[in-house]
## 1
Amino acid sequence: MSTILPAKYNIELYRRQDYIKKFTHTDPNGTPTNFTGFTFASHIYNFERSKKYTQMSVVNSNVLTGEITMSLTDTQTTILPDLSYYDIRVTNGTTSYYIMSGTITAYQGYTP
C-alpha cells in the first residue's frame, strides 16, 4: 500500500454520552481497503501533543470492505476539553501509517 496523507475528519460530540461512527476507508481510486491482518491505534491529545486524554477504540467492522468503527464511552467523552486532536494509525507487520486525523469539539449539554 502506498503512503498517502491521512483523511481529515473533524468530530463534534457531547460530553457524558457515547460516541460511535462507522467509516469505509478506500484507496485513492475508491476501492475499499482490505484491512485483514491490520491493527488500529488512536489517541486523543492536546495541540502541543504534551497531554494524552484517552484512547479511542477503533476496530475492523468488516475487514474486506474497509469498514472501521471508532467509538468513545460516556466516561471518556466526559474528560475531553472543548477542543482536542486525534489520529488513527494502522499497522500490518512492520509497516504502519496514519489513515485519519482531525479535531474533536466537545460540547456540554445542560440536562443531567
## 2
Amino acid sequence: MGKLPAGLHLGTELRAHRKAARLTQAKLARASRLAERTVRALERGSGTLGSWTAALESLGLSLAGRNLPGGRTLGARLATLRRRRRLSQQVLAELVGVTRPTIGALEREGRGRL
C-alpha cells in the first residue's frame, strides 16, 4: 500500500495520485462509491473522513506522517498522538477550533470533516 503524506496539501496530493493512477474524477468516484462532486471537494482539501478513507483505499493509499503513530483507524492514531503530547480532548479542541464532542467523535467513530 502506498503512503499519502499528511501535510497541508492533502487535496493536491490526492489529485496527483489519482492522475498517476490514470483515473478521472468520475472513475475514482465510482471506484470509491462516492459522488464525483465529493471527489472534487476532496481534491480541494475538504470532505468527511469517511470520504477521504474511501478515496484513499480505492487508490491503495494510507495516510502517513512523520509523527503519526500506527493504529487501526485515523481516529485511534490521532487519539494516541494526542495522549502522547499530554493533551486533553478539550485542549486539542480549543487548539484546532472545534468542540470537544467533535474530537471525541473523531477518535471513537472516525466521524468528522477536514
